Amino acid sequence: MVNRENLLIALLGGRTENPVWAEMNISEGLKRHFAGEIPSGLTFEEHFGISNYVCGAICPPGIVELGTTAGGKTTVKKGRLFTRADLKRIAENFPNPNTKALYDALNGKLRNAPKNLAKCVITDLCAGSALVSMGVDGFSYALTDDREFVKEVFLRYAEWSAKVHKNLCVMGFDFIWSGGDIAFGSAPFFSPEVFREVILPAMRIGASTISLPWVYHSDGNLSPILKELLSLGMNALHPFEPGAMDIRAVKKRYGNKLCVIGNVSVDLLARGTPEEIELETAGLIRDLHPCGGYIVSSSNTITDFVEPCNFRAMSNCVKSF
What we know:
By secondary structure, the protein is an alpha/beta fold. The protein has a single domain (3-320), classed as TIM Barrel (Alpha-Beta Barrel), CATH 3.20.20. 43% of the residues lie in helices and 15% in strands. The strands form two sheets. The chain has a seven-stranded parallel β-sheet with strand order 1-4-5-6-7-8-9. Strands 2-3 form a two-stranded antiparallel ribbon. Helix 7 (136-145) packs across helix 8 and helix 13 (274-288) runs parallel beside helix 14 (308-320). The relative contact order is 0.15. The model has no long low-confidence stretch (mean pLDDT 96).
């Protein structure tokens, strides 16, 4: 059975003979490091045993002021949506979600994607981009000063995403991987009451046009709002940040109703040893794979600071099962 079929079985809650590995993103630096050993005709993902192929991302733009770090990387300095007068910036910056050109790069990746890997695209239901555009401080003040303004910001982001999702679902992707961090390591960015009143209705609009299997990604502790969050109907949750959420406990609670994706520690991948990576990966597979609806993954993404030897150890461990 090819990797694509295995991933889709696991994503829908089923059990596969062998464990499945998927990643939301893999750093270009790591790909360059291993470029010399990839056999001709194979992709990086195929060589290391990863079952999905990310064709790109299409998310609503953040309305932000950019800056540069000491290392020369572009970063967000602050959001630019503070009051109702700033809403015009959304109309000025959002591309038409039904313009063919918006999807040209994704179509090109789709045409060239390996047939034996599950093709996905990264999106945002609304929360990630909206929060960045308002800033955590601006969002928090506006909840008290003008809550209807906050609802309007999230609604506009969600409506744009809903139109994009409708178009993506007929292009040939196998699944959608939708991100948007909504929690700290200790708790969500907002109270359960604010989530139910302000955030969830907008997220529901963003998700309403997804007709493919889909994954929701958020770092942090989602436990206080998990029941309401899962009402959006996603097939899987990712990545179960270590120390913030217990992936085994969530799997035990929801069984094959929810596929869990994670959660080999990125910190360990960066600073640990190959032996530690093998032990952690093997433990997750042994505890979760027999239940069905489990996909191995890092606890976020494969970043530039992941040690190549640890990445290889993770790959070897998945293959050994």
